[in-house]
């Protein structure tokens, strides 16, 4: 999959993760895009390590989308825990 398609996949995965887990997150759309792209990368690596699969092969494959979305959701939850903890201590 090309780099442009991978970025688009990450952006869409971030938007879907944000729709599944709505809330007040600082950063807006830019942070959502970054979380989606990094989440797609992490989800792909985790699927490769755990299931010995290559989910980032095809853009329209369901496993590609599921791993990207799950990766973005996990990263969004981690981001909320870190930012939430920092906001309470300041």
Description of the molecule:
The protein is globular and about 40 Å long. The protein contains 3 helices and no strands. With 90 residues, it is an all-alpha fold. The protein has helices spanning 3-20, 28-51, 62-89. It has one domain (3-89). Helices cover 78% and strands 0% of the residues.
Provide a concise account of the structure shown:
The chain has helices at about 5-20, 30-50, 60-90.
Q: What's the topology here?
A:
Elements: H1 3-20, H2 28-51, H3 62-89
Count of folded domains: 1
What's the oligomerization state?
Answer: single chain
Number of helices: 3
Shape: globular
Radius of gyration: 13 Å
Beta-strand content estimate: under 5%
Q: Report mean pLDDT, rounded to a whole number.
A: 78
Helix content: over 70%
| Number of β-strand runs | 0
| Helix-strand category | mainly alpha
Largest sheet composition: none
CA-to-CA gap between the ends?
42 Å
Q: SSE string, helix = H, strand = E?
A: HHH
Poorly predicted runs are none
């Amino acid at each position: 999959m090309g780099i442009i398609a991978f970025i688009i996949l990450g952006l869409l995965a971030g938007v879907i993760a944000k729709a599944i887990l709505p809330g007040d997150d600082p950063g807006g759309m830019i942070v959502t895009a970054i979380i989606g792209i990094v989440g797609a990368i992490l989800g792909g690596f985790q699927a490769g390590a755990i299931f010995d699969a290559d989910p980032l092969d095809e853009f329209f494959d369901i496993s590609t989308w599921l791993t990207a979305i799950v990766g973005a959701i996990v990263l969004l939850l981690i981001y909320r825990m870190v930012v939430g903890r920092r906001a309470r201590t300041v």
